[in-house]
Amino acid sequence: MTVSASTRTIAKTAAAAKSDLHKRLRLGESFIEAFLFFCGAVSILTTLGIVFVLGKESLLFFTSGEVTLWEFISGTEWQPAIGRFGIWALLNSTLMVTAIAMLVALPLGLAVAIYLSEYASLRARSILKPVLEVLAGVPTVVYGYFALTFMTPFLRSIFGDEIVQIYNTAAAGIVIGILVLPLVSSMSEDALHAVPYALREAAYGLGATKLETAIKVVLPAATYGVAAAFIVAISRAIGETMIVAIAAGAGPSFTFNPFESAETMTGHIVRISGGDLSYDSIDYNSIFAIGLMLFVMTLTLNIISRHVVKHFREEYE
Amino acid sequence: MKYKTKSRHIFILMSLLLITSLVAACGGPATPAPQAEPAKMEEPAQTEESTQTEEPARVEESAQTEEATTEETTETASATDSTPDSGSVELPEVDPLAVTGDIISAGSSTVFPLSERMAERFQDEGYGGNITIDSIGSGAGFERFCVAGESDISNASRPIKDSEVESCQSIGREPVEFRVGTDALAIAVSQENDFVESVTLEELAMIFSTAETWADVNPDWPAEPIQRFIPGTDSGTFDYFVEEVFDKDEEPILSAGNLQLSEDDNVLVRGIQGSPYAIGFFGYAYYNENQDTLTVLSIEGVAPTGESAEDGSYPLARPLFIYSTAGIIAEKPQVGAFINFYLTYVNEEVIDVGYFPASEDTLSVAEASLLAALK
Predict the structure, then answer these.
(1) How far apart are CA A139 and CA A132, in angstroms?
(2) Which residues does chain B have within 8 Å of residue A271's beta carbon, measured at their own beta carbons?
(3) What φ, ψ does residue B194 adopt, rounded to 5°?
(4) What is the ipTM of this complex?
(5) Environment class of residue A190 by beta-carbon count within 10 Å: exposed (0-12), middle (13-18) or buried (19+)?
(6) Which domains does chain B have, with CATH numbers?
(7) How do residues A273-309 score in pLDDT, each as one tens digit?
């Protein structure tokens, strides 16, 4: 008892001494602190709220008795009006659009990053970087109509009207690739830029050319940063909505042909919710199940990318 | 000491920067885009500004101020018209200049162009309020009208179902039907399609269900896959087509491959224009607007025209309706005034919009029920 009491007094005096020396209560300061904490809490609470709503409504969907979890994750036909809930019809096209987008964005973005970080003169950099940022600022609905009214006719002029349908996943995928290009290039460039200059000098000293230095020394050293950029780009492409809603088509179909129309998960949610669904219908609950699926996918990718970035940070500090 | 405050300031600045960049980096990609974007999609479907979707207080207020003027018109109506059941019904004259207060309507995308035209004319002639017309499909329109109770008028390209009447009654609404015109559902193909001009109902059923290629339906047609563009399952057009062609069974049409569904008829039009092997259907008005790129098919040898729609020889002719209730009309005089205006002038506009007029008889039935509701 006495011991604890005395420690408390000591602690008290210590605290008093500390506040005398350093800390006066300043209203502005504590207000700022509270505000910052609030900002942090808002994003966390929002996430929790989203998870709660998605989980609750999805649970209603799976407990409705009209569909089993197995049917949901194994079926290839999605037509809610007649009770067919096979997520693969939607998931497949989401994956396909994402794959096409990555085929465009990754090589191009990496090339841009290497050019900007290793080759570009100050002048070229000062022109290219803002242009790329403009590309990132274009509203996605504009990209959607760009896909429908430019990319699709362009693909049709190459492959022929017979092969390329008016709504198709290829055009949507390519345009999403253009959309995420600035993201990939700027994140990768940051990673390349962060590689210590000594490594380059050592490579030059050993007689390596500029290209050899960039590809064999700088790029491997920045692998983790580049990988993180790729993963963020993939999750951005999976979640992209407006472009696929406009250009990819409006019917769920399980196809591997990129020139045929197919509906992605996000596109389906947009179309179905546009028709004012009734709140207690199975269709309404089904879009939450799709939403949950999307959320889990992007969350997993984000967690992976965080791990990757952490690893990267440890490498050069 | 001075140095210390400075470093603290820098520390605060840095942490602010860090937090904002963290929020930007993690928040951006992690937020599922679909949460925010459906709202955007809806916009093109609505022509009128729908900012005032839920402001009952304001609407009621303006309704009250105007009650006096409209009551006058109603009184003159009952005075001039002593025999409402005598066939020739005389509706009271509407002065759009004297009508204020907002009107909220929603429903069929097929009725939408007609209602939009009537609303425009109503406003041109002096109506000062706001008419919202949402093009969301007949079923969704009744959902808003009978379940949510948000709309004053429900547009529909099919008669109201018994189940919908029941849910209307459960919220204290007794729907009144007004027939405003006739639509011939148009089966359309691209003008580049040179092999099909007329189909039978059986062929139509095959085209929109089991057949994979055109040759499966008719050996004379090319062996190319059929691309189908149809209205969404929420639309009255879809319901009507399924009822007429598939005997109310949705299964075959929804099981068909190469199927695109959209509540936005312009998406369908664009899709059909895109390929000679595409086919789709929608209200006649959308064909009318795109006559230069689309061809409409005859069914059982009958082309959709005013006469064939009127006399019923065209198999896919159907009535167009608007619905309201006596309660709403009493509470919001502007709704009664608009329906009155609608019924009085609809036959002057309906052909121009792309539909066919309802016969005098059916129109006077509608006028009689409006008179009954106005009392």
Answers:
(1) 14
(2) 41, 232, 261-263
(3) -115, 10
(4) 0.77
(5) middle
(6) 52-183+319-374 (3.40.190.10), 186-303 (3.40.190.10)
(7) 766 566 667 888 888 999 999 999 988 988 888 887 7
